[in-house]
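Lab notebook, design round three. We kept the backbone fixed and only want residue identities now. Task for the bench partner: fill in a sequence for the structure below.
Input structure tokens:
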């Protein structure tokens, strides 16, 4: 029994090690989505986590909204957005606006 418990502990340590290695590869990005909805302009700031090896920023945005869309254009149609796009936030522009 002692060996089995030792095996389980080693197994959990290896799983934890793989999990934390995966976390190190993740990056948090601030994304801006601009467009119009029902005739009114909108501006959304999203904080998303991207796993560069597993997904693109566009796929991370789609995942953020819990959608099954194949691309950003399909997500926009699902959400009722028109004339929209996404881009990375420029912190140097956002900071002065906050003051």
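Proposed sequence:
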């Amino acid at each position: 029994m002692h060996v089995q418990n030792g095996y389980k502990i080693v197994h959990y340590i290896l799983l934890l090690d793989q999990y934390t290695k995966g976390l190190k590869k993740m990056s948090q990005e601030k994304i801006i989505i601009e467009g119009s909805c029902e005739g009114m302009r909108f501006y959304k700031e999203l904080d998303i986590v991207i796993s560069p090896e597993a997904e693109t920023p566009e796929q991370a945005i789609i995942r953020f909204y819990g959608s099954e869309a194949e691309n950003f254009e399909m997500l926009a149609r699902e959400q009722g957005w028109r004339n929209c796009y996404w881009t990375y936030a420029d912190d140097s522009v956002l900071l002065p606006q906050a003051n």
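Keep this in mind before ordering anything: The two ends are 63 Å apart (CA to CA).
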